[in-house]
Structures are given as C-alpha cells and as structure tokens.
C-alpha cells in the first residue's frame, strides 16, 4: 500500500496570492486507488471561499472520496499538464510519477485557479520564468520535438502549464495572458496555427462563442495566440478563474466510470448541475453542429470545459482547439460521441436535439443555418486569415454538405 499527500491551494477570483483550501490523500493498493479530500477549517470559514468543484467537491466538512482517475478528483487533474507539458517537465526534471509528480512540477500557468504543495505551511512554488521572445521559444519547441539540447531557462519558459499535445507556451503581453501555439515539426501539409486561427474566426461568424485568437508571423512561421479565459487582469494583477474540463463533468457522475465514453448529450445534461444555463446548452449545440460541419472530429473531453463565474457557478467556457480534420471521409466519427455512434450526420444531430433543450425543428434549422454560413463564407474568412489559393485548394474538400445519415 502506498500513500501520497498533496495540499490544494486556491487563487480566489480577485486575489493574486493563493490560500490553502484542503488536503488530498491518495492510497493505492491491490484494489486500486482511493483519494480522500478534506477542506480545511480556515477555508470553510472564509466567506469568499469557492468550491474547487461544486458537484464533486462542495464546500462541506468531512472526507469526500474518489475512486476513478487514480483516486484524483477531476478538477485537480485539470491543473496538470498533458503530453506537451509532460514532455517539457521530463526534459527539465526527468520522468515523474503520474499524476502527482507532474501536478507539483507543472508551471504556474496551469489551467484554472489551483496550486499545490507537499507541506501545509509551504506555499506552492511559483517559479519565476524569464521572458523570452516568441522566436527563441519557437526554436526551443523545435529542439524539444527533435530531442536536441535546449537551454534550461528557455525550457522552463516553454512549460505551458495548460494541457494539450501540440507545442505551446504561455505568453503575457500588456497584462493579457495568451497560449502561444507553435507549428509542429510534423505539420508538413499546411500551417496548423493558421488553420486553427481561421477556423476559430469562422466559428465566431457562425455565432459560436470562442476564445479570441490572433496570428503572429515569426521568421516565416505562423504562431496562433489564443487569449486565456481563465486569466483575468484586475487592477494590474493577473487573477485566475476555476476551470473544469468535460472529463471532470463526466467523472463527477458516479456511474460514468462504467461507461467511460463521453458524449455531447451527456455534457449538456450534466452541466446545469454546475450552474450552466439553457443558453449554454443551446450554445453547446451550435458548437457541436459547427464541429460536424467543419469535420473537427478531435473534439475530445479535454477540448470542452466550464469556467467559474461566481460563487458555486460554472458556465460553458468559450470554444477552443477548433481544427478541421483534412482527411476526407464519407462520414466523420467524433471523439465526443453524438448519439451512440459519434457519426457526424444530419440525422444524428437531429436525434439528440432534446438533450440541448431544442425541438427537432429548431435543431434542423440550426444545422441548415450553420452549414449554409460555413459553406458560403469559409473562403472569404480563410483568405482574410492569410491563406493563399494553394492552401484553399488543400482544405476545400472539408467544406461540403454533411451526410444526411450514416452510410
Ligand atoms: N483560451 C483558453 N483559455 C484557457 N485555457 C485554454 C484555452 N485554450 C485551451 N485551453 C486549455 O489548454 C489545453 C490545451 O489547449 P489546446 O486544446 O488548444 O491544445 P492542443 O495541444 O491543440 O490540444 P490537443 O492535445 O487536443 O490537440 C486545453 O485542453 C484547455 O484545458
Ligand atoms: Mg486540445
């Protein structure tokens, strides 16, 4: 039997320093892992305290237990790195135990409002990173991808804190925090940062709430900057907002571990328990339809989330990581299921309408509107985003009507 302890700190919405919120103990034995979380008295007595997760970790006395996800509450895992961040941490400090080693060593730019320490009287480390320009960071990212040596200070600045597999880092400019997404050495066909920027713009024009994006050109390479919605500048300080991924929403349902396959309809049905509104459900439907129309089928459970609004309320976070799959298929199957099959078809989109507080007629009209908007405007928006004729030809097969039903 092994046991791990970690203290959880929260950056309250208007605070620049974190306060201690509680302790998680995870014990692992032959039968698996059990996590036991306990809020501290000082946090429970703080009138400004917000729950780490209003469903799985409401503000209350006593031990709250977790048996899925290695015994870790999903909300805590959301503050950890994913493939890219782990790769950078491995280069900096060597391989770590998942998830605790990576949670503790993750950059202060981690998603949401949590920080971690191993002692109750030891505030979380907040490593100071030198600022580097994007050109240096981009070259360092290539060196990480190709296993070349990288300066340690640059490597620290490349640790993004947030998740995802693609090369990226956090960048602060005039008090505004961005994720800078670099090209990858594997992108041989098209500029993926430009494709992401153009697709996010197209989504906005279809009434999808998205994170703001900007494109930067550095030595002939594109970098897509995405404004972080979990960082807010307040009177000269950068403050943080809680973030819960769709994975966390799913695992907060005790019955989910037996299914372990997330779907749009499950996200829609469950998110009102966190404070999301009917409007959020309808907005999620528009995002779902958009993802089907642009064949963004890598729309997995970490590519959607909720953002803290006030007290114990979390609402649907803006859309991010919208990128079409350029491989042409008769039907695209989505990572987050639509209905039971995940098939991106009109029939499937209409079948699930009621889970988004929509009638089938309303759903059909949204599908038809978004499809027409995308097909009529994508070229203008992609040209505006700086794509030339050759690139437009490379992506045009994406922009065709979606199948009516599964073949
Ligand atoms: N605008 C944003 N504000 C706050 N957090 C964000 C934002 N955009 C993305 N994130 C967080 O950062 C993570 C990584 O971002 P993103 O999904 O864009 O990266 P990626 O490397 O392309 O991911 P993937 O592995 O899905 O391809 C997301 O899962 C989300 O938790
Ligand atoms: Mg992603």
Automatic annotation (TrEMBL):
Residues 163-378 form the HipA-like C-terminal domain. GO terms for molecular function: protein serine/threonine kinase activity. It comes from Fluviibacter phosphoraccumulans. Keywords: Kinase, Transferase. PANTHER family: SERINE/THREONINE-PROTEIN KINASE TOXIN HIPA (PTHR37419), TOXIN YJJJ (PTHR37419:SF8). This is Phosphatidylinositol kinase. One of its GO terms (cellular component) is cytosol. Belongs to the HipA Ser/Thr kinase family.
